[in-house]
Amino acid sequence: MSEIKAAITALGGFVPETKLTNKDLEKLIDTTDEWITTRTGIKERRIERREGAGASDIAVPAVLELCEKRGISPEEIDLLICATVTADYNFPSTANIITDKIGAKNAWSFDVNAACSGFIYALSTGSQFIETGKYKKVVIVGVDKMSSIINYEDRTTCVIFGDGGGAVLLEPNEEGNGIIDFALHSDGSGRQYLYQPAGGSVKPASHESIDNNEHSVFQVGKQVFKFAVTNMADVSVDVMNRNNLTGDSVDWLVPHQANLRIIDATANRMELDPKKVMINIEKFGNTTSGTIPLCLWEWEDKLKKGDNIILSAFGGGFTWGAVYLKWAYDKK
User: Fold this and answer.
1) Which of these, 113, 182, 214, 244, could form a disulfide with 124 (CB 3.0-4.6 Å)?
2) HEC states along 38-101?
3) Ramachandran class of 288: left when φ > 0, alpha when ψ lies in -120 to 50, beta otherwise
């Protein structure tokens, strides 16, 4: 009997309608379109403005889209894992809320918080439930409403982040396609360089924490950039070497969309043709857990069955990792 792999069989994505351009930010903070573009590669990002909408409301249309594409009912989903740092509430989990909103009555669900690496952490976790033969349909969501935790007076962070998300369906594959390998890492000593200072059990909400904008993202950009450039490239090359891959044999790199310079450095280290790198950071900015599934969603038409794909990410905490998968279908 052939070995079971967890293969992506359908994709869905969603970004809010409202655009926040670099020109818009010029009116809010001391910055310029040129400064932002040169340092990040970002031209605009999407912002969720609907009254009362949370991360789950960005995720729901993405999951429903993949169900429609695959021709399945939400009731057929066995498990849903949501990667996010902007959960609707501290509890219950956003995954629970998504399953309720889509009518996935037979699924159990939970959240994963690994910052910008969240999607590949969740994808690797979900793949195990397929490979054991326990489940047949596992949905992995990567979504964030970063505008809910951004201080739009802080130019070191507000120019970077946007809202959006995507979802993939994992199903068993015995043809050799699907998730082949992954390497995941974390280093909690990096927490001081990229985190949300208040709102957790260490520093619960107070008038002082709100007045000091401590519920917004705090980042020491130079330190984060230094670690991200090194670790995203290292882990991607490590996974390639373990699987006897070269820049020629890799068909696509799907990098976390944090910064164009980090993406370029990773591709260069992998000796990859720039045409093989998925980039949409100029349109959506950094949607944290949402960047990788949004790339796959946008590039679905170009993906071919058997393509060798590397997913690579780095996030606050620090967290980082890479996934090697063989694409399982040609879009009809």
Assistant:
1) 182
2) HHHCCCEEEECCCCCCCHHHHHHHHHHHHHHHHCCCHHHCCEEEEECCCCCCCCCCHHHHHHHH
3) left
Domains of the chain by start residue, with CATH:
5-176 (3.40.47.10), 180-326 (3.40.47.10)
Query: What is the DSSP secondary structure assignment for residue 4, as one 8-state letter?
Result: P
Instruction: Mention every residue, 6+ apart, whose C-beta is less than 8 A from residue 89.
Output: none
Residue 144 in tokens: 């964030």
Residues 6+ apart with CB under 8 A from 51: none
Q: Over the stretch 127-144, which tens digit does the pLDDT of each residue have?
A: 999 999 999 999 999 999
CA atoms of 316 and 306, how far apart (whole Å): 32
Report if pTM > 0.85: yes
Q: Which residues are catalytic?
A: 116, 256, 286
Residues 6+ apart with CB under 8 A from 137: 72, 76, 77, 78, 79, 169, 170, 171
